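From the shared-data thread, chain only:
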Amino acid sequence: MEDAEKGFQQHPDSVPEVGEDAVTSVVPSPPPPAMTEEERQELQEELVKVEDEIRTLTQVLAAKEKELADIKRKMGITPLNELKQNITKTWQEVTTSTAYKRTSETLSQAGLKATAAFSNVGSAISRKLEDVRNAPTFKSFEEKVETLKTKMTPAASTSDPGDQEPSSQTTESLLSQPEDLPTQETLMH
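Structure, as tokens:
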């Protein structure tokens, strides 16, 4: 029997209780000092007493939690309401944090800069299109298209449409003057 006790003392294979420190359950503990049967009995009684206290406290805690749930139910506080309150509280904590404020300010500044950049690009495109429209080549092209439109639109007359003279200028002759037409290069400058 003593050999069995020595083996237990040298290699304790006890399962750690709930709440024990994780380090003590991983690192092997040194063997307990030799004690008398009387000391062992006292420790055993103390162990039973502490375990009973833990059971009692667990029961008291469960009763208190039930009482808390009943009070909340009577007050109309539901788990959903509690969740909403927790989310609201957490959101307030986040929005008042320094990191959130810095990020918000940075994004706001970036948005302003992006808006200004897009505005500048839009203005530049508008100016360029206005320059193209005012270019002599475009004006000349515009006039030729207008002339072509006028000549191709039948005039309202009382005479027979077959009596009209054919146009002296054809569509081909109006559009065959490449020096007057805008090119890709003139449109981009």
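The CA atoms of residues 17 and 98 lie 42 Å apart.
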